[in-house]
Write a structure and sequence with these properties.
The protein is α+β, with helices and mostly antiparallel strands. Helix content is 15%, strand content 36%. Strands 27-26-25-24-23-28-29 form a seven-stranded mixed beta sheet. A hairpin with a 3-residue loop joins strand 20 and strand 21.
């Protein structure tokens, strides 16, 4: 039978590099004793010699060692899982090098069956966080999430090898689909129990890998108002003997995104009232106790929030468990940057020159493993309704450019040298993002084919929630070639923004997206559209065969077009609308607004097609 044990207590910790500490017999008696989760950065004093962008706290290198005893492990499968290590972890067990993991936010597992022994065992972990100017927020350093040891029979379910989805709900009856994968089991059984532990339904499949279904009569549905959780007990068999047991919380619910009507949970239309949540807890650092997450979520709920985005990386499992239990809808986010490194401020915000360390250094080698790890770990959470493959991947000229604009402005302009704002064909072309986006979409769909849709959050808006879908805009040539597709995309995005999102802004809670109250510059790129009153906003009808890129101060009543069209902004029915007055690119008589809160241009329509197909499935 499977047994999972927390390995959080009584680790030995040494700040600094000790090359021989990988050796099982190394004498660590003088090392400091700490409990995991542990963040060594937040333990230190603030110092301006460290990077401003990560909180003036240090990184460096350090070692952790854990001594523990095992009994009766011969012939057993033993897995060691780290919830999160920031960053570049190198792991050893009993002097054997298991491997490394670069990304500081991924959960990763090693099968250590052949390396453990009866009696004493030693885990050694080297953590390398040399460049603290590697992020746009405080990261922390060390083994800052839980460490667990799982011991099972050799014939067992694969790690994260069970995926439960709600296939359909009709007349109160639900059908659950269970995709499973085992190692050498020849039969499975799945038993669904209610919140009181009472048997509700069961099913199975006589195979090593396959799909089973369970019919649930009078199903109780999961929702923010009633986050009801069942328990699925999963049995793996070999030669009619139970060899593995796993339990999984299950929330029965359906999700649907409709371009005309918005988001539906269990057939009920609702708005997402969302906030963005980083992985740390302020003065507590990155090692956040579950009780702190619970307190935060309860505060959010009291403020009217029902959704959150895990800005800007895979979150703690504790947070997602609480979202399941308390009834929050979640956008689970993977990355803050892809191949191109963003500016990292180390002498103060927007003080040039920046440094450019960060995940972009590891993305080419690690993005597939990191994205797969997130989706596999998190896909059973009923709270998760969408995946985000990236946040603000393309800042204006930071690092991507497009030939459509000679100069691009954004929220990083204060102090930015003019040459940094100008188009330079030696910089990465924004068109590359489409290729990467499609690859990331395929990675997710290979694991979760039932996804509602995949989004990447873009632009420079500091509001609480933003939505984009895979790409940003199209070039003129591609737009002309596929005008109908682009028009439909525009309708889709605008209606989703209108119908799905309700922003939570300090002291401002409304039933629509409110931008006029935000004292912040936004970067927009979108289709100019002809006035058409739908849901109180001027949207939908494509007006010109081109896209524009504008910057304006919300609520100011003035703005500028980075080309020649002059316009002014005004609030109309709670929306910030743009009135085009005219310019060298042509006069426009009708009132217009911008469809799409994103950055910059130069995308082909392939990425949009992926996204549209995903929407149409629901």
């Amino acid at each position: 039978m499977g047994k999972i044990t927390a390995l959080n207590d009584n680790w030995k910790f040494h700040y600094g590099d000790v090359p021989e500490a990988d050796f099982m017999g190394y004498n660590d008696s003088a090392w400091r004793i700490v409990d995991i989760p542990h963040d060594w950065s937040v333990e230190n004093p603030f110092d301006k010699s460290n990077a401003s962008g990560t909180g003036y706290l240090p990184g460096g290198r350090a070692w952790y060692r854990k001594h523990f005893c095992l009994e009766n492990v011969k012939g057993k499968r033993v897995r060691l899982t780290f919830g999160g290590v920031y960053k570049h972890a190198r792991v050893y067990v009993n002097s054997h090098h298991l491997g490394s993991w670069a990304y500081g936010y991924s959960t990763f597992t090693f099968d250590i069956s052949e390396f453990v022994r009866e009696g004493e065992n030693v885990i050694s972990v080297r953590v390398e966080h040399d460049e603290v100017a590697d992020s746009r927020w405080f990261t922390g350093s060390g083994i800052y999430r839980d460490v667990t040891l799982e011991i099972t029979d050799m014939n067992c379910f694969e790690k994260d090898g069970i995926f439960v989805t709600t296939k359909e709900i009709s007349d109160g009856r639900a059908v659950l689909k269970i995709d499973f994968s085992t190692t050498s089991c020849d039969d499975t059984e799945f038993i669904l129990e209610d919140a009181d532990g009472k048997w509700i339904a069961s099913g199975g499949c006589e195979a090593e890998k396959g799909t089973a279904e369970i019919i649930v009569p009078a199903a109780k549905l999961w929702s923010p108002d009633s986050p009801y959780l069942y328990t699925l007990e999963c049995h793996g068999f070999r030669d009619r003997q139970i060899t593995d047991v796993i339990t999984i919380p299950v929330g029965i619910r359906t999700i649907e995104f409709d371009a005309d009507k918005g988001f539906f949970l269990n057939g009920e239309n609702m708005k997402l009232k969302g906030v963005c949540v980083h992985h740390d807890a302020g003065a507590l650092g990155a090692a956040v106790p579950k009780s702190v997450w619970k307190r935060r979520l309860e505060k959010f709920r009291a403020a009217g929030c029902n959704a959150l985005r895990t800005a800007h990386n895979p979150p703690s499992s504790d947070l997602l468990d609480l979202c399941d239990e308390l009834g929050f809808l979640v956008m689970d986010e993977a990355f803050d940057e892809w191949e191109g490194a963003k500016n990292k401020w180390w002498q103060g915000h927007n003080v040039y020159p920046p440094k450019r360390f960060g995940y972009a250094e590891d993305f080419p080698m690690w993005h597939k493993a990191d994205l797969e790890a997130m989706v596999l770990r998190d896909r059973n959470h009923p709270s998760i309704i969408m995946w985000s493959i990236g946040n603000e991947i393309d800042y204006p000229n930071d690092p991507y450019v497009t030939p459509l604009f000679d100069e691009v402005l954004g929220n990083n302009d204060n102090g930015k040298p003019k040459e940094e704002r100008m188009y330079d064909d030696r910089k990465p072309d924004a068109g590359r993002l489409t290729t990467i986006a499609k690859e990331l979409v395929d990675i997710v769909h290979n694991i979760d084919s039932d996804i509602a849709f995949i989004c990447g959050v873009g632009g420079s808006c500091k509001s609480c929630f933003q939505l984009i879908c895979i790409g940003n805009t199209l070039t003129n040539q591609e737009f002309v070639a596929d005008n109908e597709l682009c028009l439909n995309i525009g309708k889709l995005i605008v209606q989703l923004i209108i119908n799905v999102y309700q922003f939570i802004i300090p002291n401002v809670i409304t039933n629509r997206i409110v931008l006029a109250e935000l004292e912040v510059f936004l970067q927009f790129a979108g289709i100019l559209v002809r006035k058409d009153e739908v849901h109180g906003c001027t949207v939908f009808d494509c007006m010109e065969d081109r896209f524009v890129d504008v910057t304006f101060h919300v609520g100011s009543g003035t703005g500028e077009y980075l080309g020649a069209v002059v316009y002014h902004t005004e609030e109309r029915d709670g929306f910030a609308c743009l009135n085009v007055l005219g310019g060298s690119k042509g006069s426009v008589e009708d009132d217009v607004c911008i469809l799409y809160c994103v950055c910059v241009t130069a995308f082909n329509h392939d990425a949009f097609v992926v996204c549209v197909e995903s929407f149409k499935k629901f």
